[in-house]
Amino acid sequence: MQQGGDGDRIFLDRAVEAFIRIAFIAILVAWCFDIVRPFIVPFAWAIIIAIGLYPGYERLTQVLHGRRILAAVIMSLLCFALLLVPALLLSASLVGEVHRVIAAFSHESLTIPPLPDAIAQLPMIGDDIARVWSEGTSNFRAVLVEIEPELKVALHWTIGVAGGAGVGLLHILVAILIAGFLLAQAEVGQRASAALARRLAGARGVEFAKLSEATIRSVTRGILGVALIQSLLAGLGWLAIGVPAAGLWALLALVMCVVQIGILPITVAILVYVFFQVGTFTFLAFLVWSLFVYSLEHILKPILLGRGVDVPMAVIFVGAIGGFLSAGIIGLFVGSVVLVLGYKLLLAWLHGGSESAQDAAAVPSKEGPARQG
Predict the structure, then answer these.
(1) Is residue 303 one of the residues assigned to a domain?
(2) For the stretch 219-258, what's the b/e string if a residue is b when 16 or more beta carbons lie within 10 angstroms of its beta carbon?
(3) Which pTM value belongs to this model?
(4) What's the pLDDT at 23?
(5) Considering the domain boundaries, does residue 235 fall inside one?
(6) What is the DSSP string of 11-55?
(7) Would you report the helix, strand and coil content of the chain in percent, each value rounded to 5?
């Protein structure tokens, strides 16, 4: 009986000791997570940016004869320039348009142009549009008072979007700075990621790590790259043709391309506007340019999305869009990586099962001759 009591006491002491250790580790992990939580999003963006820039960084390092720190600094400065210059131009254009409208409204010189006859003659909706347009032309202030509740909602939403965009821009700026350090220490980062992958996934961990890296590059080129090219070329065309607030429309086009709505809705609306503002030849030239920009999505995306990844393009595309819907812009990358890894794990499980069945079927045939001998 004494031995049983001693054994229970030892077991209880060990259980209490294990509980204290686990509780201490859990508290430490939670504390560490709370400390680094503000940096999780910038650091995730930094990893994505560093992976996307790494091929160019390697070429630049070769040009600079192996000076990795200098190459990382140059790549970071280029990213800052590519991000800040369009943002400043867009902000200046938007602020200028707002000041112009406010000044015109305060001096009562804000006028609404007459509604084109083609719009007024549209079936079903033409009469309503003409009525509201006529009221706005004759008494613009009364129309503003009438739609004041809707304007307040729209203004509140706009302020929220602008605040979110400002926070997102700050995250990206910090992420670019971190990405520069990651690029400068790329070899150390690769060894660390490979060691972590081996600990998590065993022998195939390095394969999954490389697959994740290739997937991020594929999404960067196939979704963000194509969206950036389309919105930039479209914005240049709108700026050349004289579309008001072309920078704002280009930013909206970039967002719509990223979320896979596409540039078509904005393009159609601007084509209608340009049709009533310019001559026939200019409109035809602008129409050809718009069709070319729109077709880039169908030409470049199949080429770039999924390139370098031994996974169907549909898997990457579905993962990117599903991730975006659930987690925002960063979900484009996280969703695609998670779905690709899940797809590869499913294939490994299926192939592993078939290989085991084949090996089991082959065992009797191998043992038969041995027994006969």
Answers:
(1) yes
(2) bbbbbbbbbbebbebbbebbeebebebbbbbbbebbebbb
(3) 0.64
(4) 92
(5) yes
(6) HHHHHHHHHHHHHHHHHHHHHHHHHHGGGHHHHHHHHHHHHHHHH
(7) 85, 0, 15
